[in-house]
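Tokens for chain A. Residues wanted.
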């Protein structure tokens, strides 16, 4: 870690066919963070990592100082091979795993809820599993955006590759906004503060 920078990665699949899928909610959150920071993603290969990236400052630090320095990244690879881009970007920007934040969809959390954690298992999420393998550790931060379990006997893999339902889309902008808030708070005031605010029902 050369300069206190963070790497914030939104997981998903590339291309317009996948853009509205539940599996791509992490990239939706990254788009919101970029919008807030007034930056635009540039698709390029950085350090051998295929990703759309943007450098920014997010949030406001305690005391009113400018927000955290971050590299925002959306891998250009498919979800199940997300690890290469995350590892490559971390090495290129000299960001240690404990300052990597992965924003992703989470089946085990109800739609509309957000949870944050450091480390732990991958819960069957292939994108997370590949990130863990590439980084060589589970000790990176996760912003887990709840998409809920599939209805009936629908396969989980099919469920996450479908767009949000009509009812969910009415709440989706709010959910993406809340996940962006949680990410900013994590970066500026730490995991405990972000968990306290976003894990508590109001």
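Reply:
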């Amino acid at each position: 870690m050369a300069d206190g920078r963070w790497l914030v990665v939104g997981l998903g699949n590339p291309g317009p066919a996948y853009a509205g899928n539940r599996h791509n909610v992490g990239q939706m959150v990254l788009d919101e963070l970029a919008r807030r920071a007034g930056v635009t993603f540039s698709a390029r290969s950085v350090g051998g990592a295929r990703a759309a990236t943007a450098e920014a400052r997010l949030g406001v630090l305690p005391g009113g100082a400018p927000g955290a320095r971050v590299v925002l990244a959306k891998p250009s690879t498919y979800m199940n091979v997300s690890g290469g881009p995350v590892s490559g970007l971390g090495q290129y920007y000299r960001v240690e795993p404990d300052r990597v934040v992965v924003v992703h969809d989470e089946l085990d959390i109800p739609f509309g809820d957000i949870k944050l954690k450091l480390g732990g298992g991958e819960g069957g999420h292939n994108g997370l599993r590949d990130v863990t393998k590439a980084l060589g550790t589970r000790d990176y931060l996760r912003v887990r955006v709840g998409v809920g379990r599939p209805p009936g006997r629908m396969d989980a893999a099919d469920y996450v590759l479908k767009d949000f339902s009509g009812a969910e889309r009415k709440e989706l902008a709010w959910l993406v906004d809340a996940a962006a808030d949680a990410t900013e708070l994590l970066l500026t005031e730490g995991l405990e503060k972000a968990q306290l605010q976003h894990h508590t029902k109001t």
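The helical segments are 25-37, 83-93, 126-135, 156-160, 166-189, 191-198. The beta strands are 6-10, 42-46, 49-60, 66-75, 100-106, 114-118, 141-146.
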